[in-house]
Amino acid sequence: xxxxxxxxxxxxxxxxxxxxxxxxxxxxxxxxxxxxxxxxxxxxxxxxxxxxxxxxxxxxxxxxxxxxxxxxxxxxxxxxxxxxxxxxxxxxxxxxxxxxxxxxxxxxxxxxxxxxxxxxxxxxxxxxxxxxxxxxxxxxxxxxxxxxxxxxxxxxxxxxxxxxxxxxxxxxxxxxxxxxxxxxxxxxxxxxxxxxxxxxxxxxxxxxxxxxxxxxxxxxxxxxxxxxxxxxxxxxxxxxx
Amino acid sequence: xxxxxxxxxxxxxxxxxxxxxxxxxxxxxxxxxxxxxxxxxxxxxxxxxxxxxxxxxxxxxxxxxxxxxxxxxxxxxxxxxxxxxxxxxxxxxxxxxxxxxxxxxxxxxxxxxxxxxxxxxxxxxxxxxxxxxxxxxxxxxxxxxxxxxxxxxxxxxxxxxxxxxxxxxxxxxxxxxxxxxxxxxxxxxxxxxxxxxxxxxxxxxxxxxxxxxxxxxxxxxxxxxxxxxxxxxxxxxxxxxxxxxxxxxxxxxxxxxxxxxxxxxxxxxxxxxxxxxxxxxx
Amino acid sequence: xxxxxxxxxxxxxxxxxxxxxxxxxxxxxxxxxxxxxxxxxxxxxxxxxxxxxxxxxxxxxxxxxxxxxxxxxxxxxxxxxxxxxxxxxxxxxxxxxxxxxxxxxxxxxxxxxxxxxxxxxxxxxxxxxxxxxxxxxxxxxxxxxxxxxxxxxxxxxxxxxxxxxxxxxxxxxxxxxxxxxxxxxxxxxxxxxxxxxxxxxxxxxxxxxxxxxxxxxxxxxxxxxxxxxxxxxxxxxxxxxxxxxxxx
Lengths: 241, 282, 248
What we know:
Shape of chain A: globular
Strand content of chain A: 25-35%
Radius of gyration of chain A: 18 Å
Radius of gyration of chain C: 18 Å
Number of domains of chain C: 1
CATH architecture of chain C: 2-Layer Sandwich
Oligomer: heterotrimer
Largest sheet of chain A: 5 strands, mixed
Pfam families (chain A): RNase_PH (PF01138), RNase_PH_C (PF03725)
Largest interface: B-C, 31 and 33 residues
Number of domains of chain A: 1
Structural class of chain A: alpha+beta
CATH topology of chain A: Ribosomal Protein S5, domain 2
Strand content of chain C: 25-35%
GO molecular function (chain A): RNA binding
Structural class of chain C: alpha+beta
CATH architecture of chain A: 2-Layer Sandwich
Strand order of the largest sheet of chain C: 1-2-3-5-4
Number of strands of chain C: 9
Number of helices of chain C: 4
Largest sheet of chain C: 5 strands, mixed
Order of helices and strands of chain A: EEEEHEHEEHEEH
CATH class of chain C: Alpha Beta
Family (chain A): Belongs to the RNase PH family.
Main location (chain A): cytoplasm
Shape of chain C: globular
Keywords (chain A): Cytoplasm, Exosome
CATH class of chain A: Alpha Beta
CATH superfamily of chain A: GHMP Kinase, N-terminal domain
Number of strands of chain A: 9
């Protein structure tokens, strides 16, 4: 299958190094302590954060830091074909775990001993890159909830198809069978907190693809920063400052 | 859904309802404003999102080709399933939300599919062989009470948003052969939702009943009766929740109140749906 | 077999309801407002703290009550008692092997939650804090109006177990076929019905603890159906009370 045509245009009309359109909104779930919706093209996710609060299950209590829990679930109508997945199937468990570890790396858990933070992620539309979109949404929701973080985590994926590195794969490209690298970085500290890849890639190509994903992350982090800044301005305005 | 209210708050809610002035300024039989968005899920046949205060639900309709049930060869199938997202609250993580999900799914099925709300025979393509199956999936994103009414309204909006593609059935079909079809993408038919009932839940707090209760008000209820009514004022389903018993005459009185409220409610819902359709079309 | 022991078996329904408006004869020669012959018995003498058997026509149900016994350790402290209801159908309960039927598990779940909702307002839960009462209902044969038989039988079993209740709960279902209301419908009649009203009613308190209604109804018909079922519940209440009195 031809993922990039001779003019260097991808199936959805993007250039290889182009991100999909980003759209973020803060405060979409009013009952949650912090929430955000994040769109990357046709992928749309909602994140809600509850906490920090007392640990529900006493056996899970950690004396010197906060317990972070994460749940990822996909809506039944999120994919093209309607598949009924029970809550907590293997794929969601794996993604929940990945997101939890990534978020834990940036939350300053040591400041909130004996407490618990819940991150709930709901995929409304899945068109590739749900993992990255969830991480970005979770970052925004955590910031909205006012949970101390050492930096913002952003994530982006990149792939290698038709001997071209491609940024931010959509579903068709994702299922094209090529290698797919998902990177999560701490934007300001310039540290990688998440790196996943399936399939194989030669060393030098991997570096190229990885660099592309990191560039994508940086673009996203710029956008997220803008959204947060705008949100803070709105809050200030509402308070009459 | 745990709501912890102090003694004063409880008194305030109960006293307000007694005096026909609720905590958010509404009267007992007033609904909250109900903004509807349609076509929110592009990959579905039809979809709608409804917000009632902080209650936020999405319903999508997906039409798929299927085989009619052997007991009802002349009827299509409609399945309603409601899912409760963990974003409602941490208490709905994992399997804990399933109890609420299945309760709401059953209630919706009883209230909306019981009567002649959806004309199942209009979904049939080849009798006994091919029909449209409508999968109606609800997702609760946030809950501030009155989920059933919101879901019922969202199902109605999503169905009126649904466009079912026209189908060409290839003729000369032997009796035992599978029919071959060819979906025409440009031509659509709409589902007739005019006779689809609406659900109105009357929540009994003290001696009075209120419509569209918030989560705080629901925590003070003794019992609640959900009544589904169609345009002709016929009752299409009735479900009771909550432990306390009700005098039979109270139930009959609730039905007449619901009937009275439904006229205004159906009109509001219709106009909201047509506004949403107009704005999603443009 | 002696005639007193012969069990009741309905003949197959001969005619379909071609004209629902006209009067017809019910498959078991009952009148429209006549319940099926019922047989109820408490205490089948097993390990349960209370039990009852109910047979309404071909619907046969056993309910056993266990407890009040200590709630599971994992449960949080609760100053009122817990009620746990579970309804199961035997594989031979229906003409088609029921496990193979679509929605079989869902049906069991629905029945269980309906039973719970009917009973929760009737039992004095505050009389047994920190403990759980289990209500296990087993449908041996499903012959129509299953839910109402289960509810009535469960309340008899609860009384047998000595669990405090506000009143004996009785339940009756009424089906609307065309313009006619028939009480206590059988399976065949339930398949033909245009609407159904099932209520669980406490006769001495004059309160409805649970009600469900399906199908399209006019208000007048609901009034009528409600009256019919309340009257039948009164009678059933007397029957239940007599059985309890005799069993002692």
